[in-house]
């Protein structure tokens, strides 16, 4: 792609998360109703035949399209400053369809070494069986990306900040390398969210989201999205839209309705995640029980400078996100004692996987999200036995602090 296109908006991101609409709602409804229907009819036989012939009717069958999809798509496209968006049944469906679509015919994909466990499994054990080749690269250094490029490289897939290590990749620099070689850059922006990072404005071609996380924010659905240029997304038979339709990995209208409701508080939630997470990172850094704390907003993060350049709100203020990762002295056994505290006591912290919810969540990648990766491999990716991943919620900071304070005091280090 020669020139990156992205859309600027007059309204600020928090306002867009509330007000962007795909069109006038029927009957003047203030909130778009749920189109809980599998199919849509036409008035006449002629209209029916024409609709199938030239796609002149917007809605025919919910596996093709549905007004609730359009509403969420319009909004997420605007948050990412993208031209268009497609929603999918999950973040994994969005990733899988995009990579199969772009890297068909046995192409080569360069991806970040440390990825969400499901994406890691997809790229290690599933898609290679369909002939797609992957190189896992330490994308913290753009030179490694340059060296990994082959004749048949079609995609560079970045997860930044990475799950769970919060390692960063320089989107702008890597996109410049990619553009010279006609390679598309796809960024999984689930961790930062468009509030803190807009990859299309840095030169990426597509952005992927697990809407399940910060965009929805309420932990009550699974859904994904791809944002980018309209031509790639909806340009006829050879488009991601067509692949979504025919492979059938579509979102559900009810989930779109819920995501739309969650999105309305996106701006205020993100501000609170950013501020609570920075407080937790600073608090943990000052505790004797910690071995190491990883948070892009800490001066001690090895890529803090890049974070200051790349993780910015639309107003240019730093926004380092709601994810905090740390390691306790005492490795696996200390981590387990620490987690037990949250299972056995009433705190503001829940021991579950997932992230970006309104409540604070903690999980242990080595035995939970990344347990499928063999230990040696896992350690090479920086996912040590004692690493703990926190998705900081929007509770009152004092209660989050007290929960961590009590759990730390309970492990006797
Ligand atoms: C960074 C990242 N990308 C993608 C996914 C997959 O999203 P979903 O669970 O919605 O399929 C996850 C899930 O945890 C994730 O953390």
Verbal overview:
- The chain has 413 residues and is an alpha/beta fold.
- Helices cover 38% and strands 15% of the residues.
- The strands form two sheets. The protein has a seven-stranded mixed sheet with strand order 1-7-6-5-4-2-3, sandwiched between helices.
- The protein has helices spanning 13-19, 45-54, 67-79, 91-102, 117-126, 142-148, 171-180, 193-196, 230-234, 240-247, 253-263, 266-285, 304-310, 331-344, 375-380, 397-410; strands spanning 84-88, 108-112, 133-137, 153-159, 184-188, 206-210, 224-228, 290-294, 323-328, 349-351, 360-363, 387-391.
- The mean pLDDT is 96.
- It is globular, with a radius of gyration of 22 Å.
- α1 runs antiparallel to α3, α3 packs parallel to α11 (253-263) and α14 packs across α16 (397-410).
- It contains 16 helices and twelve strands.
- β5, α8 (193-196) and β6 form a beta-alpha-beta unit.
- The termini are far apart.
- It folds into two domains: 13-263, Aspartate Aminotransferase, domain 2; 266-410, Aspartate Aminotransferase, domain 1 (Alpha-Beta Complex).
- The site of pyridoxal-5'-phosphate (PLP) has 15 residues, from α4 and α5.
């Amino acid at each position: 792609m020669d020139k990156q296109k992205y859309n600027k908006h007059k309204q600020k991101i928090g306002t867009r998360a509330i007000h962007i609409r795909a069109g006038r709602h029927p009957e003047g409804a203030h909130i778009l109703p749920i189109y809980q229907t599998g199919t849509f009819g036409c008035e006449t036989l002629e209209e029916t035949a024409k609709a199938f012939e030239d796609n002149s009717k917007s809605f025919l069958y919910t596996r093709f399209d549905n007004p609730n999809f359009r509403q969420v798509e319009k909004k997420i496209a605007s948050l990412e400053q993208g031209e268009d968006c497609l929603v999918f049944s999950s973040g994994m469906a969005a990733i899988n369809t995009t990579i199969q679509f772009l890297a068909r015919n046995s192409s080569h994909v360069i991806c970040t070494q440390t990825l969400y466990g499901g994406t890691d499994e997809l790229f290690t054990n599933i898609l290679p069986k369909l002939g797609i080749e992957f190189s896992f690269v330490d994308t913290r250094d753009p030179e490694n990306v340059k060296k990994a490029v082959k004749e048949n490289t079609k995609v560079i897939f970045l997860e930044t900040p990475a799950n769970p290590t919060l390692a960063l990749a320089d989107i702008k620099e890597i996109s410049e390398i990619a553009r010279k070689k006609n390679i598309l850059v796809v960024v999984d922006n689930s961790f930062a969210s468009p509030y803190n990072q807009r990859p299309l404005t840095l030169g990426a071609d597509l952005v992927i989201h697990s809407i399940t996380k910060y965009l929805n924010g309420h932990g009550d659905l699974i859904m994904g999205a791809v944002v980018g240029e309209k031509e790639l997304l909806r340009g006829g038979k050879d488009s991601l839209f067509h692949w979504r339709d025919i492979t059938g990995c579509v979102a559900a209208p009810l989930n779109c309705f819920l995501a739309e409701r969650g999105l309305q508080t996106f701006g205020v939630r993100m501000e609170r995640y950013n501020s609570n997470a920075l407080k937790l990172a600073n608090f943990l850094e000052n505790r004797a029980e910690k071995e190491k704390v990883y948070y892009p907003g800490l001066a001690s993060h090895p890529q803090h400078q890049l974070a200051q350049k790349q993780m910015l709100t639309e107003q240019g203020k730093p926004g380092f996100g709601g994810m905090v990762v740390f390691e306790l002295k005492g490795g696996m056994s200390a981590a387990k004692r620490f987690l037990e505290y949250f299972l056995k006591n009433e705190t503001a912290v829940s021991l579950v996987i997932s992230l970006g919810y309104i409540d604070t969540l903690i999980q242990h990648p080595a035995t939970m999200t990344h347990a499928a990766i063999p230990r040696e491999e896992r350690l090479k990716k920086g996912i040590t036995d004692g690493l703990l991943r926190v998705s900081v919620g929007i509770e009152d900071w004092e209660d989050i602090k007290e929960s961590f304070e009590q759990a730390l005091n309970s492990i006797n280090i």
